[in-house]
Amino acid sequence: MMKSLFTRGAFAAPQFRWFYMGRTISLLGSGMTPVALAFAILQAHHGQQLLGYIMTAEILPHIVMLLIGGSVADRYRRDRLIQLASVGAGCAQAGIAAIVLTGGNPYGLFPLAVLNGVIGAFTAPATRGIIPELVHREAVQQANAYLETSRSVAKIVGPALAGILAATVGGGWSIAMDSLSFLVAAAFLTRVKTPSHPAPSQRSLLHEMREGWTYFVRRPWIWSITMAFTVMNPVQMGAWRVLGPIIAKHSVGAAGWGLILSLQAVGLLAASLLMMRLHFARPLRAAMMGAVLVGLPMFALGLGLSFPWLMASAAAAGMGSTVSGIAWSTSLQQGVPKDKLSRVMAFDDFGSFVAIPLGLVAAVPVAERFGFRTIEALGGLVWMLVALLPLSLRGVRQMTVTDIQAQGVECQDTLLG
Q1: DSSP code of 195?
Q2: What are phi and psi for residue 295, nearest 5 degrees?
Q3: Could you tell me which CATH number the domain at 12-191+208-407 has?
C-alpha cells in the first residue's frame, strides 16, 4: 500500500514529496503558536489590547507587501523563496520565544511580528503558486488535500499541546519548538527543485503587478469571492481570534479553548481526507457553501451555548473551511496560467486580508461597548450571510470544473522529475 502511495497521484512526483515533508514539519511547529502566544500576551499588563495590536503588527506589513511578494514569486524561483523564508521565520520565532520565556517586555514582540508579516507576504504566493509546478494538473486537488491533512493534524495536536505547556512549563517552549520546526523544514526544502524556472524578465515589477491586476479584475469568478472575504475575514479574525480567547478565558479556560481549536482541526482533517477523492462538479459553489459553516462556532460562542454544542460547531466549521479552501485553491491553480498564478493569488490574498487590521484593532473596543458575546454572535451571523453573496452571480454559482480549466488554457503541464 505504501509503495502504491508513492507511485500514483501527487506523491508520484519526488519534488512534491520533499515539499510535503518540509511543509508538514513546519505546520506541526506552527500549530502550537497561536494558543501559546495568545495566552502569554493576555497575562501581560493591558493584554487584551496588546493581543489585537500585536496581531495587527504582523498582518499589516503582510498585506502591504503581498502584491510585491506575488510579483517576485512569478518573477523568480519559488523554491528558493520558500527556503529562505523558512530560515527567516525560524529566526523570528526564536526571538519571540526568547521574550516569552524570559518574561521580557511584550512590546519587543512588535518588530518580530512585523518581520513575520513581511516574510509571510513572500511565502504565501510562492507556496500557493508552486503546487502546479510540482504535480500534474489532475493531481493538484489531491496535493492540496494532502497538505491540508498535515495542516489539520497540526491544528489538532498543536493547540492541545500548547494549552498543556502554557498551563505547566509556559507557552514560550511551544514557540521555541515552532522556531526549530522552521529550520528543520528549510533543510528538507533544499531538496525541492522546480522543473522549470522563470525566464529573466526585462519588464519592471510595477508593470508585472499591473498585468496581474488586469487579469484579476477581468474574471468575476475570482474577484467576487475575494470581495466576500474582504468582509468576512476581518469579522472572523476580530470575533474568533481576538474575542474568542478573551471569552474563553472567563468560561472554558485555556485548556478548553485548546480543545475547541483541536476539535475544529478534527473537522479539517476529516474533510481533508474526504477531499483526496471527492470532486465537485461546481467547485466555486461548494467553496462558498463550505465557508458558511465557518460562522457556526462564532455564533454558538456568542449565544453562550453549552460546551458540546460549541465543540460540534467547531468541528463543522473545520470541515467547511477545508472544503472551501481546497476547492478555491484548486480552482485558482487550475484556472490561472502558471506565469500569472502567484500575482493573481497575491491580489486574492490582498483583497481577503486588507481589512483584517481593522477587525483586529476594533474588536475589543466595540465588544466593550456592546458586549463581548453580542459582537461574537453578530460576527458569526455576518460571516454566514456574506459567504452566500457570491452565489447570487450565476457565473459563480454555475461554473463547472471544465469552465475553470478552460480559463487556464495557457497552463502547460510540466514534465516532472
Answers
A1: S
A2: -75, -15
A3: 1.20.1250.20
Residue 161: CB atoms within 10 A of its CB come to: 20
Specify the DSSP element, H or E, that contains 360: helix 356-370
Q: Give the number of residues written for the chain.
A: 417
Pick from 249, 237, 292: which is nearest to 163 by CA?
249
Q: If DSSP codes are grouped into helix, strand and coil, which group holds residue 219? A: coil
397: Cα within 13 Å, side-chain hemisphere: 8
What is the per-residue pLDDT for 3? 45
Distance CA 62, CA 116 (A): 8
How many percent of the chain have pLDDT more than 90? Answer: 33
The rounded radius of gyration (Å) of the Cα atoms in the chain is: 20
Q: pLDDT means per 10 residues in the chain (417 residues)? A: 53 88 88 75 68 80 88 85 91 88 82 90 87 85 89 77 72 82 90 69 78 91 95 93 86 80 84 88 94 95 90 94 93 87 90 88 91 94 96 91 72 40
What is d(CA 80, CA 320) in angstroms, rounded to the nearest whole number? 33
| Cα torsion 245, 248, 249, 252: sign | negative
